[in-house]
Design goal:
The chain has 5 helices and 5 strands.
């Protein structure tokens, strides 16, 4: 099997996203983008709409929403949808993510999304917000807290 050239920034244990970059994040703008795209989700089976907004080092923002399918395994989550948009645009360096769900419990990226995000940023700051839940405060966490000891390129034999 052929493998892509090694990119060290994908390895678990690399330095986390810079503190300066995390402090410069406009969380309000990222939240608004996640909330806006959430309204476009295709969720006829679960009625659980999710929006995600990823900002990259260049400042560009990429959004995604969940798209359900009658064949449930073909459903794509909002976070992976946003990552696909980011990659398709030629970007590879996310610095923050907002995930918007309905509440009253804050939704967190699923395991598949966590692993997909870890391909690009092991210690990505993640903000969880609830669109329709008055009194539910946003929570900020990180991918490394949600996915400790992430599997990465370093584990693959070359």
């Amino acid at each position: 099997m052929s493998r892509a050239p090694h990119d060290a920034r994908h390895d678990a244990g690399d330095a986390p996203a810079s503190t300066e970059a995390a402090q410069a994040i406009d969380w309000d703008a990222l939240d608004r983008a996640a909330l806006a795209v959430r309204t476009r989700a295709h969720a006829p089976y679960s009625s659980y709409r999710v929006g995600a907004a990823i900002v990259v080092r260049s400042g560009r923002v990429f959004t995604g929403c969940n798209v359900e399918n009658a064949s449930y395994g073909l459903t794509i989550c909002a976070e992976r949808s946003a990552i696909v948009q980011m990659v398709a645009a030629g970007e590879r360096d996310p610095i923050a993510l907002t995930v918007a769900t309905s509440g009253p419990v804050l939704g967190s990226p699923c395991g598949m999304c966590r692993q997909t995000l870890a391909e690009f940023a092991v210690d990505l700051p993640i903000r969880l917000i609830a669109a329709e839940a008055d009194g539910v405060a946003p929570r900020t966490t990180s991918l490394s807290a949600l996915l400790p000891e992430a599997f990465g390129a370093a584990a693959l034999s070359r």
